[in-house]
Design brief:
GO molecular function: ATP binding; single-stranded DNA binding
Largest sheet: 6 strands, antiparallel
Number of helices: 11
Mean pLDDT: 90
Number of strands: 15
Strand order of the largest sheet: 2-1-4-5-6-7
Main location: cytoplasm
Distance between the termini: 32 Å
Function: The RecF protein is involved in DNA metabolism; it is required for DNA replication and normal SOS inducibility. RecF binds preferentially to single-stranded, linear DNA. It also seems to bind ATP.
GO cellular component, one term: cytoplasm
Shape: globular
Radius of gyration: 22 Å
Low-confidence stretches: 370-377
Structural class: alpha/beta
Helix content: 40-55%
Subcellular location: Cytoplasm
Length: 377
């Protein structure tokens, strides 16, 4: 599995210039809110996914007053050889992605080379927001495991944009539109089948992780909903032609897919407490981790940002006991409460490193001071 041995971050968010070396096991990062803990995890995520876990545009990733940022990481790869990956982005939006100083032909070719799973407070949008957030999550998972999925999705989105432009024209060529419909169907089918299989694969894993985390007091589930359940996309588009012409956009297709999260048969958005929702989201991401590990043949990096928030001490202990096992690889954890984090981590493993951050500057630190009391479990 890829192990991040060293990272260099320059002008990313509030990080001016930082070079850090990490433990191959557990890395704990503490500091007050707003100091830069999440920014470091996002830099690691960016190095894997070539985009931020939080910002849809790179203009928010430049340190104030700068015109470019760069992230470089040295990884020990599954073949036991080291590789150096780097990304540089400037104000034009151009991304230069390199492996061992050799540029990729396409940026998308890098996706999946360094598999990563991130758990953060922002994940609540998967429950509270629209289906677009849930589709984005599933796309990020499947794109790391299946290059054909990523290629089909990219082609589908390009064709969909062209079809929508045609629908906005005063005179729409229906024959030409039918050609687009057939091509859209060709790319939609593999995306639909992959999403359906992913849902079938992840459902029992989510249920099991939720049981381990919460003690099994509730049953959780995921269901996949798609227009393609009704038939071939080309037929659906043909039947919705008049509607689409009036609306001036495509009203059927995989861009409308959604994933329903439930607890005891009810929408978790409406019936779940904050702690239950957080437990479900952690279980969802751990299930993602498990599915990706099976597919890749090795463990992805696991980034746990402020994961203890809204969890009681029993669930926190259960969570860390889970990730300390041999099934997990390299892990990065952030928490504003160093005593809480160290008190639990020190019980679990000696193979860990502690970092403290202030105003975007990180330093290696010790664990729990000897005069500190351990928090109650």
């Amino acid at each position: 599995m890829p192990i991040l041995e060293k990272i260099t971050v320059a002008d990313f968010r509030n990080i001016r210039l930082q070079e850090l070396e990490f433990s191959p096991n557990l890395n704990c990062i503490s500091g007050n809110n707003g100091e830069g803990k999440t920014n470091l995890l996002d830099a690691i995520y960016y190095l894997s996914m070539t985009k931020s876990a939080f910002s849809s545009t790179d203009r928010y990733n430049f340190r104030y007053g700068t015109s470019s940022f760069s992230i470089c990481g040295t990884y020990l790869m599954p073949n036991s050889l080291e590789s150096r990956f780097s990304i540089q982005v400037d104000l034009t939006g151009e991304k230069k992605v390199r492996r061992d100083d050799k540029p990729y032909g396409k940026v998308s070719s890098h996706i999946g080379v360094l598999p990563v799973v991130m758990v953060s407070p922002e994940d609540i949008s998967l429950i509270s927001e629209s289906g677009e957030e849930r589709r984005r999550f599933v796309n990020s998972v499947l794109s790391q495991m299946d290059r054909e999925y990523l290629a089909s999705l990219q082609q589908y989105n390009r064709l969909l944009q062209q079809r929508n432009r045609m629908l906005k024209e005063l005179q729409t060529d229906r024959d030409l539109l039918s050609v687009f419909d057939s091509r859209l169907q060709a790319y939609a089918e593999p995306v639909y089948e992959a999403r359906k299989k992913f849902t079938d694969d992840i459902r029992p894993v989510i249920s099991e992780y939720y049981r381990m985390l919460s003690g099994g007091s509730e049953q959780v589930d995921v269901c996949y909903r798609s227009d393609l359940e009704k038939g071939a996309l080309a037929d659906l588009l043909a039947s919705s032609y008049e509607k689409d012409r009036i609306l001036k956009y495509t009203s059927a297709g995989i861009q409308r897919d959604d994933f329903e999260f439930s607890m005891n048969g009810w929408p978790i958005r409406k019936c779940g407490s904050q702690g239950q929702q957080k437990s479900f989201l952690v279980s969802l991401k751990f299930a993602q981790y498990e599915i990706m590990k099976r597919c890749c043949g090795f463990a992805p990096l696991l980034l746990l940002d402020d994961v203890f928030d809204k969890l009681d001490m029993n669930r926190i202990s259960n969570l860390l006991s889970m990730v300390s096992g041999s099934d997990f690889g390299q892990i990065f954890i952030t928490d504003s409460n160093k005593v809480r984090m160290a008190g639990i981590v020190d019980r679990i493993t000696e193979d860990r490193a502690y970092f403290e951050v202030s105003a975007g500057e990180f330093r290696l630190s010790g664990g729990l001071p000897e005069d500190e009391d351990l928090p109650e479990a």
